[in-house]
Amino acid sequence: MLRLNRINLDMITGLQKKLINLLQTDSLIKERVDRLMTIKGIGQVTALTWVLEIEDPNRFSRISKAVSYCGLCSAQKESASKNMRGPISKKRNKHLQWVLIEAAKIVPI
Predict the structure, then answer these.
(1) What backbone phi and psi angles, to 5 degrees, belong to 79?
(2) Which domain holds residue 66?
């Protein structure tokens, strides 16, 4: 059982490396990934996930819309000129949100 798990892990790791290498042959993707990796704590997988999930960053007219898309803002309710904040919004890109939150957990301070 352990040998089978190890074989599967090796296969997945190999596929991941091939995918990263293949995607970095695209000059636009490579440029964006390289630029993101200049940020301390951002590695290849996190940068590549951001680039692939966001696609064209110019599609967001404001940063607040990008933050909302990533699911990094709390839900907001307004009523009678009262602003109430709730838990993190459920309207988001779940995969991107998960990657960014996990990356934030290991970023050096």
Answers:
(1) -155, 130
(2) 2-106
